[in-house]
Amino acid sequence: MAEHQNPEASAYAGRWVALVRGKIVAQGETREQAFQAAHLARRKEQPEIRFMSAMPVSSPLLDSVRVLLPEDVSVYLVGGAVRDAVLGRVTHDLDFATSQGLKLAKKVADTLPAAFFPLDASFDTARVVVIHPDGSRDMLDFAGYRGESLEADLCGRDFTINAVAMDLHTGAIIDPLGGVKDIREKRIRACSATSLRDDPIRILRAVRQAAALDFSIDPETRKLMKAAVPLLANVSPERQRDELFKILAGPKPDASIRALELLGAFPYFLPELTALKGVEQSAPHVHEVWTHTLAVLRHLEGILSVLAPAYDEDKANSDLMNGLLVLRLGRYRQQIGEHLASALNTDRSARAVLFLAALYHDVNKPQTRSIEEESGRIRFLGHDEQGAETALKRGMALHLSNDELNRLKLIIRQHMRVHAHSSRKEAGLEISRKAMYRFFRDCGESGIDLILLALADTRATYDHALTQDKWVATLDVCRSLLEAWYEKADEIIHPIALVNGDDLINELKQKPGPEIGRLLEAIRETQAAGKLSTREEALAFARGWLVKAREK
Are residues 422 and 326 in the same domain? Predict the structure, then answer.
């Protein structure tokens, strides 16, 4: 059919179009509407009226699957792949609805070949994972109909944009709820009045997809979401966690979190955040705590975008602060990208944990707020340590892995550390090698997250009032830390040991005990500072250290 070759076809699937010399000039829901629209636009020309019955969803993988399908079994491509085709986007996840989910998935996996994973025998659902030579993956999910027919399956889904199917045998579009029109008009609309009550996690999904696709949520659907918000408390922690992490890992996390707040979701989902709104802060903060938190998310996304391995040069140079950021830290973009892509859990990246830490980094400011009597300055003493414990409890409630919990707690507990070094830098004091050693001794790889969070926190604290001098001081401290971690690790972070515990015991006639451990750490610090380079120097330092220790 001609529309398979027409790049505009996906935008008009399921509608009548008018073509003049092969170009679409008008469209409508009926033949008459398309004809009348074309007549108004091109009065002197005779249009060809055609129904765009097929959608050009095509890929080598999909073509490979199509030839394996039995002619007598109905199989439909559904959900995100069809939606993305209408939008002209590429997707690596394909969902199929059929009457033989497990059987077809096994056949496809055996023939491609690919890995086969039964997901839910009661729903006739299985997954096929295709791993390509470059390590990339495509996932194909086969599922039996959720209902008595395909139409019942589509009508029972979450949003109309995900309730469109394409017959793999004929290319015909099945769109019982007008999903293609909603996709074209960038609107997220519930499939039914009970869609959100039936599965409240769809509230988070709607917010996420609105941000990811740059769509708006239909006003009536927004009302349904707000009404169903209390039911979020009944959703399993694992499903809450997975949707939250997708929101934090996706575009515009600040807008998504703000939307959830406006919906009233936090008391049932992230209750600790409800107290942040309206908590005033002293200068240099230009925002109250909740607005500041959202600004940190916004700036963190922008900073990571500018420092991404594949970045938009125009965006990177869009303002002075970004230009300075790239100038001083741009050479570490590849290493930063690899760090953020690393997995603390099979299904979740370090990047999402960093954003969760950013969301919770000031969570205990309301509980620690005090006002100095003489100066009137607002203080939040201990908010970092208390906030780390609060975030840890929330992470445990969301069933994060131990690695994720440890990193989350560490980032929040230490998030003021880079700021302290930046303040000293502003006063003309360079960050010492010993301070860099101690920073990474205490923080390890999470030090990279702390650097990125400190950059976003600085931007959010001052926002448009940020001075070049303040920003440069912060950048210089961050550059020194990154240089130590990535370029001078053998000198500063983990220098080769000059002596060990046995050396100290034998050479200095000491007894085993905690003092030996403290002495070894003092030697490592001094070595990292560049003041020790030989075994003899280390032993001489140790003798002097012991003398001073006994004099105290």
Answer: yes
* Type and span of the H or E element at 13: none
Burial of 261 (0-12, 13-18, 19+ CB in 10 A): middle
- Are the beta carbons of 300 and 391 closer than 8 angstroms? no
Range of the domain at 298: 270-483
Report the C-alpha gap between 160 and 183 in whole angstroms.
Answer: 8
Question: Pick from 460, 483, 506: which residue ends a domain?
Answer: 483
Q: What is the pTM of this model?
A: 0.85
Q: What is the pLDDT of residues 263-307, one digit of tens each?
A: 999 999 999 999 999 999 999 999 999 999 999 999 999 999 999
Query: For 61-116, what is each residue's pLDDT tens digit?
Result: 888 888 888 888 889 999 888 898 888 787 778 999 998 888 889 998 988 888 99
Same domain flag for 543 and 394: no
Examine the domain organization and report whether 477 and 536 are in the same domain.
Answer: no
| Rounded-to-integer distance, Cα 294 and Cα 257, Å | 8
Within this chain, do residues 36 and 61 fall inside the same structural domain, yes or no?
Answer: no
End-to-end CA distance of the chain: 90
CA 499 and chain centroid, separation? 44
CATH number for position 88: 3.30.460.10
The three-state secondary structure class of 213 is helix
Please answer whether residues 189 and 218 qualify as being in contact, where contact means their C-beta atoms are separated by less than 8 angstroms: yes
Tell whether the model's pLDDT for residue 7 goes beyond 50: no
Q: State how many domains the chain has.
A: 4
Q: Identify whether the C-beta of residue 301 lies closer than 8 Å to the C-beta of residue 257.
A: no
Residue 257 domain-assigned (yes or no):
no
Q: Are residues 328 and 398 in the same domain?
A: yes
ω into 7 cis (within 30 of 0): no
